[in-house]
Every structure is written in structure tokens, then in C-alpha cells.
Design a protein that fits this description.
By secondary structure, this protein is α+β, with helices and mostly antiparallel strands. The protein is built from seven helices and 26 strands.
Length: about 450
């Protein structure tokens, strides 16, 4: 198995070479270690400019104009915050409002009015129609009232309806959609998202903004990582990781405290703090020289994270003995407090647990004191989120209301016969059963 390492070629430069290791870990991996005389560098994370990425990936031309210019002009890389997308949301909201006031409200008012069928030919367009020579009008009216119909009389005509509330369904749907659209616009122009990677016991402010709106406001509250830990499955895979977070005001007074985990955020006013990631920044060692009267020295060593086959490894190295140019390579697989030690030739030496002293060395020995973890916190502000939730709740309510039926009933007495008819917008089977029940009040 091969392990990549950087060794010291001179006082200030490094040469990459390969070391063959036969028994380092149960699984094969390739890791990188940076080593210097006085300090060790983890590496440099370069932030690539978004404009450079657009130019590099979309440099082809359309009608003589580079395509990345179209992307910048129409904000295609950030659609949900673009001017044209928000304009479309506003236009859709205006359209829904217009439909509500011009179409739906007049329809509701028309449904509330009573109107009678005075001509027999008007019954031909109804869903159900019955004819007879006589009718037991009082019993028929009483039966309609029991079935919660609203009745209106005029001479020889009867009109009845029930389920008027179902006519509110389309109006409530429009209101819910408007709430969702307005809430989305507010979150787009006033919300923000921040991603922070904070060591344990540190106090931090919101700084690393990765998404923001035109009118976003960044609160100046302080946050403290009181503790961070993780739990593991039996096979060694991480199961869950937790962060104990406190929110502080400008005077350092704790406003709220909670232990968060994945899918269990901390909610404070309009802020939501999510557990998003974790990392190991380094480890703390105590260098002990038993053959001299020099006091022990505590050092903090940074580590380099390496991803290999969906697993994480952290590697570092330090000068254990300046006199004999003795280097040691340290390997961490998790933050459970176990350290694998190799020499500068990549040969496995031992596994050391937290708090143990390495007694195999002739001169300098070291005590593995602590792992220095960091927690990834995503801070998100959605000022329009409550309005969006209200909109979806109203939308669910409107869906339930829309399932109710609006049924109408007419009766016309002429000199020759009695005509009874009915129609509904839903549940036609139930209306047919009602008509069969009312038929017993008609007789020849």
C-alpha cells in the first residue's frame, strides 16, 4: 500500500515522494503530510471566483456573444434572486388577485342568490330530472330542511341549495398561493445563508456569508460553541454529531442555549442554526524529555483532511527529536481518541490512545492530550418562512373545502304536472341517492 508524504528537502521547501507501507490501516488509503523544521502547514484552500468559472466553462459564443455574458446578464447562476424571477412572482400574484376579484368573488355572490326555474324546458339541462302529477310539498320541504338545504319559495316554485362553503375553495387557494409567493419574495430579498466552521469553545460572529439578498440584515449577535461530540455505530461509522451552542447578546449574556444535531436546529427569532458538518483541526501533544531537566512542552499540531472511498482521514507529522532528525507521522481516523503513529519511513509503530504516553522512544516521549475538533454550522435567515407556512396551511384547508359538494334543487308546479330537478358539482352518486329518497314524495 502506498502513502504519499512530503519530506524536508531543505529548510524551506518540500519534495513529494512515495513511501511503501505494509501495515498502517485495515483499509488502503493515500494520505499527504506536510512537514517543516519549526512548523507544519496543512495546505491552502483556494476560493475560485464564480466569474472565472463561468468564463472557463461557458466561453462558447452564440450570435457572436460569449454565453457567459448571457448568464451574467440574466442571473442564470442565481435564478431565485434574479430580478426577472422576482418580477414573475409579482406578476403572478397580481394575476391571482385580479382573478379573485374579477372572477371568483362575483361567482360566490351569484351562488348566494336564489333563482327559480319557471319554464319546464329549463329542467332539460339538469343532471337529474323527475316528473309526476302530484307532490307532498310539506313532507318534501321538511325532508330538504333535514338534509341542511336552504329553501326559497315563490308561488309554484321552490329553489334550495347546500354546500355554499365549497364555493370559497378557489378563493382560498388564490389567497394561499399569494401568501406563498409573497413569502418567497421576502425570503429572497431579505434572507441570507452563512456557513461557519468553528473550533470547540470558540465565540464567533456571522461572517462567512454564502448567499444574501438585496435588503438582507446580518444580526450582530455572538455565538459560542460550548461543546462538540459525536456518536458512532458498531462498525465505526459516524451515527450522529452534536454541538452545544449558546447565543449571546452584546454584553455576553446568554439568550438561548441548545444542543443541536442533524435535522434538529436551534431556532432564535428569524435565525435557524443547523448542524451541517464537522472536522478535526489538529491535536495537542505534550513533549516529555525524561533524560533532561527541561520542563515538558505542549504543542498543537495541525492535521490535513483526506477523503478516500467515502471515508475521512486526518494526517500530520512533527519533529519528535531535533538532534537525530527523528520525524513521526500521526494518523487519525475519527475523533474518538485514538492515534496511529508511523516513523518517517512509513513503518507502523503503534496505536496510542488519549492520555497515554509514548514510552517507546529513547529520548523525547509525548503524551496524546486532546483532539481539537471543529463543528460546521449553517446559519440561515428566512424572514418570509412563517408566511410560506401559513400559505401552505391555507392551501391544505382549501383542498379539504374543495371536496365538499355544492348541490342545487328546483321544483316547478304546472297545471299538468310537477317537475323536480337537481345538479351538483361533485358527489353525483350521493345526489342520485337523495333524489331517489325524495321520489317517494311524488305520486301519480
Amino acid at each position: 500500500m502506498e502513502v504519499l508524504a512530503l519530506t524536508n528537502n531543505s529548510a524551506s521547501c518540500y519534495v513529494l515522494h512515495c513511501i511503501t507501507v505494509f501495515d498502517i490501516l485495515p483499509l488502503e488509503s493515500s494520505v499527504c503530510s506536510l512537514m517543516n523544521t519549526d512548523c507544519f502547514a496543512i495546505g491552502v484552500i483556494s476560493v475560485l471566483d464564480a466569474s472565472w468559472l463561468l468564463i472557463d466553462n461557458y466561453s462558447f459564443s452564440i450570435i457572436g456573444i460569449p454565453f457567459y455574458k448571457f448568464i451574467k446578464l440574466f442571473s442564470l447562476a442565481n435564478i431565485y434572486n434574479s430580478f426577472w424571477f422576482i418580477s414573475l412572482l409579482i406578476l403572478l400574484s397580481i394575476s391571482l388577485l385580479s382573478c379573485t376579484f374579477i372572477q371568483q368573488l362575483p361567482t360566490l355572490n351569484f351562488s348566494r342568490r336564489y333563482y327559480f326555474y319557471k319554464q319546464p324546458k329549463q329542467f332539460n339541462r339538469l343532471f337529474l330530472k323527475l316528473e309526476s302529477t302530484q307532490v307532498a310539498k310539506r313532507k318534501l320541504i321538511f325532508n330538504l330542511l333535514i338534509r341542511h338545504y336552504s329553501l326559497f319559495f315563490q308561488r309554484n316554485c321552490i329553489y334550495a341549495y347546500k354546500g355554499l362553503i365549497s364555493r370559497l375553495g378557489p378563493i382560498i387557494v388564490h389567497i394561499s398561493l399569494i401568501c406563498i409567493l409573497v413569502g418567497s419574495c421576502i425570503s429572497s430579498i431579505k434572507g441570507f445563508t452563512s456557513q461557519e466552521l468553528i473550533p470547540k469553545s470558540e465565540i464567533f460572529h456571522i461572517q462567512n456569508i454564502i448567499k444574501t439578498g438585496v435588503f438582507s440584515y446580518i444580526p450582530q449577535d455572538s455565538f459560542r460553541i460550548n461543546d462538540f461530540w459525536s456518536i458512532y455505530n458498531k462498525n465505526g461509522d459516524i451515527k450522529q454529531f452534536y454541538s452545544d451552542i449558546s447565543i449571546l447578546n452584546n454584553k455576553g449574556i446568554e439568550l438561548k442555549r441548545k444542543t443541536i444535531s442533524v435535522n434538529n436546529p436551534l431556532l432564535f427569532k428569524e435565525l435557524s442554526l443547523y448542524q451541517s458538518d464537522w472536522n478535526i483541526l489538529g491535536c495537542r501533544l505534550e513533549i516529555v524529555n525524561e533524560q533532561s531537566n527541561l520542563p515538558s512542552k505542549i504543542i498543537q499540531i495541525p492535521v490535513l483532511k483526506v477523503n478516500q472511498n467515502n471515508s475521512k482521514l486526518w494526517i500530520s507529522s512533527f519533529r519528535a527529536n531535533e538532534k537525530f532528525n527523528e520525524n513521526s507521522i500521526l494518523l487519525l481516523r475519527n475523533n474518538r481518541g485514538q492515534l496511529s503513529i508511523f516513523n518517517n519511513k512509513g513503518q507502523f509503530l503503534k496505536t496510542q490512545n488519549l492520555g497515554e504516553i509514548d514510552s517507546t522512544r529513547k529520548f523525547n516521549q509525548f503524551n496524546f492530550l486532546e483532539i481539537l475538533p471543529s463543528t460546521g454550522i449553517q446559519i440561515k435567515s428566512d424572514p418570509g418562512l412563517k408566511l410560506i407556512y401559513i400559505g401552505f396551511f391555507i392551501l391544505i384547508l382549501s383542498s379539504l373545502i374543495s371536496y365538499l359538494s355544492f348541490s342545487e334543487f328546483w321544483l316547478l308546479e304546472t297545471t299538468r304536472n310537477v317537475i323536480l330537478g337537481a345538479r351538483t358539482n361533485r358527489s353525483k352518486v350521493n345526489l342520485r341517492l337523495e333524489m331517489l329518497n325524495l321520489q317517494r314524495f311524488l305520486f301519480d
